[in-house]
């Protein structure tokens, strides 16, 4: 992973591989430039390769998803209890293979999944997960109005341009019920700072352009037309691997300070439909 802070965005992310699969080879297969943001064709080819590899997830990736899913379940339960919603209808935007969503389904939640291509759904379908609806959509424009109580994205928006995020946010507002909740969780800026420090002065192969690290303030600007902000959260992993919330100091809403000597991994914004 490589970071470039000289762009109009907070940071640019570049990666060479994911789940032991070469992203550069997938660029060749999909005839994409390495400088392009990953898109539906790219993801389709990647998940086909992952399936051909027997869905062999890296151990830490699988464990992180499972630990994060526990935090997400607590968050969804908390915000829905505030609204006295007993059986919330949920949508995961950009669900990937659905490891987090599988946990939520197992906990009894009614969860629909959305992706920009269908290949990633093969994993949960092979596990006979009780997902009622799989949506293949670029910007959610095909989804019906006022259906969902809560929508979440987990490490999804960072790979999109601002204009694409705005289109998706508009449709998320439309498909949410009155006072519905939108949960954004993405890469924390401090992780960008950490990686930048590690890469300074070294020669690293940039690989494939993978997206942007944005601050909470930047995300809040992108959603403010349709959502009011209920709260921000920062998440770090404790020694047992569980995700824990903290409230670190910030400088201009961007540089996240260390909290009890732990690195913050994720930033979350809990939004309520206007």
Oligomer: single chain
Number of DSSP helical runs: 8
Mean model confidence by pLDDT: 87
Rg value: 18 Å
Quick one: overall form?
globular
Estimated share of beta-strand residues: 25-35%
Could you give the count of β-strands?
15
In the predicted model, the low-confidence regions spanning at least 5 consecutive residues are 5-9, 250-261
| Helix amount | 25-40%
Major sheet: 8 strands, mixed
Structural classification: alpha/beta
Helices and strands, in N-to-C order? EEEEHHHEHEHEEHEHEHEEEEE
Widest sheet, order of strands: 7-6-5-8-9-15-11-12
First-last Cα distance: 37 Å
Write structural notes for this entry.
- This protein has 274 residues and is α/β, with parallel strands linked by helices.
- It has helices at residues 23-30, 40-52, 59-82, 99-106, 122-126, 162-175, 189-199, 216-223, and strands spanning 2-4, 11-15, 17-18, 21-22, 89-93, 110-115, 134-136, 148-154, 176-187, 208-213, 227-237, 243-246, 250-251, 255-256, 266-273.
- The strands form 4 sheets. It has an 8-stranded mixed β-sheet, with helices on both faces. The protein has a 3-stranded antiparallel β-sheet with strand order 1-2-10. A two-stranded antiparallel ribbon has the order 3-4.
- Helix 1 packs across helix 2 (40-52).
- The longest helix is centred in the N-terminal third of the chain and has 24 residues, at 59-82.
- The protein is globular, with a radius of gyration of 18 Å.
- The N and C termini lie far apart (37 Å).
- The model is unreliable at 5-9 and 250-261 (pLDDT under 50).
């Amino acid at each position: 992973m490589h970071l470039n802070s000289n762009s109009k965005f907070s940071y640019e992310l570049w990666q060479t591989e994911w789940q032991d699969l070469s992203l550069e080879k997938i660029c060749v297969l999909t005839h994409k430039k390495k400088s392009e943001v990953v898109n539906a064709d790219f993801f389709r080819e990647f998940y086909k390769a992952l399936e051909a590899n027997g869905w062999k997830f890296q151990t830490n990736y699988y464990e992180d998803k499972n630990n994060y899913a526990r935090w997400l379940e607590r968050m969804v339960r908390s915000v829905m209890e505030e609204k006295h919603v007993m059986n919330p209808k949920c949508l995961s935007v950009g669900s990937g293979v659905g490891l987090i969503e599988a946990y939520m389904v197992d906990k009894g939640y009614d969860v629909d999944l959305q992706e920009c291509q269908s290949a990633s759904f093969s994993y949960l379908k092979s596990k006979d997960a009780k997902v009622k609806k799989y949506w293949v959509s670029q910007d959610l424009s095909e989804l019906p109005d006022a259906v969902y109580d809560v929508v979440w994205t987990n490490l999804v928006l960072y790979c999109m341009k601002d204009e694409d995020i705005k289109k998706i946010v508009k449709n998320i507002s439309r498909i949410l019920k009155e006072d519905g909740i939108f949960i954004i969780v993405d890469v924390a800026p401090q992780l960008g700072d950490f990686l930048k420090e590690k890469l300074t002065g070294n020669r690293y192969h940039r690989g494939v352009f993978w997206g942007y690290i944005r601050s909470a303030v930047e995300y809040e600007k992108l959603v403010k037309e349709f959502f009011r902000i209920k709260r921000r959260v920062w998440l770090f992993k404790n020694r047992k691997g569980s995700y824990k919330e903290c409230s670190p100091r910030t400088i201009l809403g961007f540089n996240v300070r260390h909290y009890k000597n732990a690195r913050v991994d994720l930033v979350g914004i809990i939004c309520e439909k206007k």
